[in-house]
Amino acid sequence: MTTQRIAFSTLAFPDASLASAVSMGRSWGYAGVELRLIDGELIDPAMPAAVRAAVKQTAAAAGLPIVAVDSSIRLTDDESGAELRKFLELASDWESPLVRVFGGGLPGGGLERQARLASAARVLKASVPLAERLGVAIGVETHDSFSASSVVAELLAMVPSAVVGAVWDSHHPYRMGQQPADVWSDLGRRTLLAQVKDARRDATRTDGWQLVLLGQGEVPVREMLELLGGDGYEGWISVEWEKRWHPEIEEPEVALPQHLSVLRTWFTELGAGA
Predict the structure, then answer these.
(1) Is the C or the N end of the chain the one with fewer CB within 10 Å?
(2) Contact indicator for 8, 34 with CB cutoff of 8 Å
(3) How does pLDDT run across 134-155, given as a tens digit for each residue?
(4) How far apart are alpha carbons 46 and 90 in whole angstroms?
(5) How far apart are CA 173 and CA 176, in angstroms?
(6) Is pLDDT of 272 > 60?
(7) Please, are residues 1 and 193 in contact by the beta-carbon 8 Å criterion?
(8) DSSP assignment letter at 251
């Protein structure tokens, strides 16, 4: 893992065109882009062919590979299978290696929980042949009812395929009381993408947390990177600055250069080099 593998999510740019977002990201030194917003809007896999081509050309013109295509798919929803197939084809068109999905909601326990997990596993299993043919993997993020990596691991154990893995969001497992070593123990080599963000507890907020610039919160991102690097992770590190969902946080022109600077410093300290 090196500093050459740092990407950013377009979630940081709710008010910018894709062309502006990738141009700025490239000018700051990022090496890849994770697509969540296109021209400020969530990705529609039914977009016309001409629009698909324009997105690919825009990223290529900036010299940024599309490291992941982020969907809003929740595997426990009834129509998730059909939507996942569309996103796999879209990612393939953009030569992206990964589609990010959410697990969705789970009951607290019992037979209904197991049935929901089994349903999510069936969606993934049904998508494996297409994913293998297209060369696009599916990453289940540590998010929603799957925020704890142990729950993601439980699902992945039901789908033993190299094209199905995890997206490790630094914040959500920590909210669930987990440390990086716990997450890596659960997910290990099935980690396909590492998303980084920092936050601190804030009792005045509905969700109890305030997103902050990297290194200014309590999420153990540095320890996460140390662990990933020490165990030979070679995937992308992606900065997910959630400006779309949290308009009060700093502008991307402030946050993204700051994140990259801190990440480079940490990589140097950890011996990754530049």
Answers:
(1) C
(2) yes
(3) 999 999 999 999 999 999 999 9
(4) 9
(5) 5
(6) no
(7) no
(8) P
Answer yes or no: pTM beyond 0.70.
Answer: yes
Biggest CA–CA distance in the chain, Å, is 52
Kindly write down the DSSP assignment for every residue of 18-65, as one continuous string: HHHHHHHHHHHT--EEEESEETTEE--TT--HHHHHHHHHHHHHTT--
What value does the CA radius of gyration of the chain take, rounded to a whole number of Å? 18
Amino acid of residue 1: M
Q: Do 249 and 205 contact (CB within 8 A), yes or no? A: no
50-61 confidence digits (pLDDT tens): 999 999 999 999
CA distance 109 to 119: 15
Would strands 137-141 and 98-102 be described as parallel, antiparallel, or unpaired?
Answer: parallel
| 235 conformational bin, left if phi > 0, alpha if psi -120 to 50, beta if neither | beta
Give the number of residues written for the chain: 274
Domain 3-269: give its CATH architecture: Alpha-Beta Barrel (3.20)
Quote the tokens at residue 80.
């998730």
Task: Give the model's pLDDT for residue 152.
Answer: 98
With a cut of 50, say whether residue 274 has pLDDT above it. no
Q: What is the average pLDDT across 22-31?
A: 98
Residue whose tokens read 């779309």: 244
The whole-angstrom separation of Cα 274 and Cα 260 is 12
Structure tokens at 213: 């610039």
Share of the chain above pLDDT 70, in %: 97
In degrees and rounded to multiples of 5, residue 156 shows phi and psi of -65, -30
3-class DSSP state for residue 98?
strand
Q: pLDDT tens digits for 177-189?
A: 999 999 999 999 9
